[in-house]
Amino acid sequence: MATHLVWLRTDLRIHDNLALAAACRDPQAQVLALYIATPGQWREHHLAPRQAAFIASHLHSLHAALAERGIPLWVEEADDFSASVERLAHFCQQHQVSHLFYNYQYEFNERQRDAAVESSLSEVICQGFDDSVLLPPGSVLTGGGEMYKVFTPFKNAFIRRLREGLPACVAAPKPRQAPARLAPPVPELNYPQTPFDGLLFAADEKTALARLRAFCQQPAADYEGQRDFPAVEGTSRLSPCLAIGVLSPRQCLHRLLTEHPAALDGGAGATWLNELIWREFYRHLMVYYPKLCKGRPFVAWTDKVAWREEDGALQAWQRGETGFPIVDAAMRQLNATGWMHNRLRMIVASFLTKDLRLDWRAGERYFMSQLIDGDLAANNGGWQWAASTGTDAAPYFRIFNPTTQGEKFDKQGVFMRRWLPELAKVPEKALHQPWVWADKQGVTLDYPRPIVDHKQARQEPLAAWEAARKGIIPPPDGGSCPSASDTAR
Predict the structure, then answer these.
(1) CA torsion, points 430, 431, 436, 440, in degrees to nearest 10?
(2) Which residues pair with 125 in a beta bridge?
(3) In what order do the strands lie in the sheet with 125-129?
(4) Residue 73 in contact with residue 33, Cβ under 8 Å?
(5) Looking at the DSSP assignment, which residues form a beta bridge with residue 3?
(6) Which residues pair with 34 in a beta bridge?
(7) CA-CA distance, 447 to 329, in Å (whole number)?
(8) Whether 51 contacts 374, CB under 8 Å
(9) What is the pLDDT of residues 347-390, one digit of tens each?
(10) What is the pTM of this model?
(11) Which SS3 state, helix, strand or coil, does residue 307 take?
């Protein structure tokens, strides 16, 4: 009897799992599943403790769901990817595995690991699948056969491909005859874990699917008008499920089109569809440009930008103590929940890289260390977009004004009051610049003064980016031009 092994990674679900479905097609084969935790690699990749807890929760529910279908799931540990290759080879030999099925991961280290696995398992038939994307990387290219460097033309080409034929979802496996040997219970992960809020984020696959259905029924249609306001529950909060593969992008697409068939043509739901395509764009870019996994900017000349080195400013930003209420409320939301509203991610990233002129890589790392939905492609793409080092078509002199952003997207300060209790006595009209009011009233606030003057600070990044673009070497005290490490993410 053939023994099929499903090697699970960021695909912790039974529905629409391409590798799992393929492993189960032969009704006579014994099907096993394996997840290898790599705590050493997680530390190197700055995996957030909340995301580790989220993974652990879904491993427990997946262990039970697979067992109901006669598929035992082993959860084992290897410190890093190199050790995981050895662990996998040992497992295949121990269980006489004939076929290995897995879903591709597109980060540089992960691709190297998978190549090493296929090379080492010479007697095992290996089969991989493009499961975490709607369309495989390399399938949406320019007329010249190149990867798109700007989102809008990529999106247009992507939608044309979808109109030609939607990627199909596959059903969860049917119950199989239970194997003679059952897998042990899921062990405790050897990694720090911070509890996550189960009311905010789905703790199991069934709940994730229910939330996807609920969001697509009406909130997806309202998404365009609601998504920028952090005090409104206008987003799906499904990004953590996509990050670890509790949901697939195909499930999201099909559910959206079931409720809003005109989304592909720009109708209701089109804005949320755009967010799914942004996710694809960054994944495709990461495959085409592996340097993005190595801390390097997409636009080469921006590696010459003279970043400031100011630990105090970085720590104030991390703690939410910059004196800019919308920035501070956003950072405190991140620190407390492991999640941040998308509009706020843009605001705080612009503030770090433009107002403070601190290296975007410091922000990228800190986000990964906190985010329950941490995902290298999306996080790197977002940070490089904000820092004007990435694929944005807009010029580098786009700089968000944190005060006017707060006034526009949290005018009444509902969100800010939730996270900044020290501003409770500040009137609504004064919330966005509380110290202006406090000084006029002779009031003392238990809240930091702004650590930078936005109008003055705005000039520094303009000069720094222009100098980098022209190849001008900054003076010794002008900041640092860190060369990216060759160590891949």
Answers:
(1) 50
(2) 99
(3) 73-77, 30-37, 3-8, 99-103, 125-129
(4) yes
(5) 30
(6) 7, 74
(7) 12
(8) yes
(9) 999 999 999 999 999 999 999 999 999 999 999 999 999 999 99
(10) 0.95
(11) strand
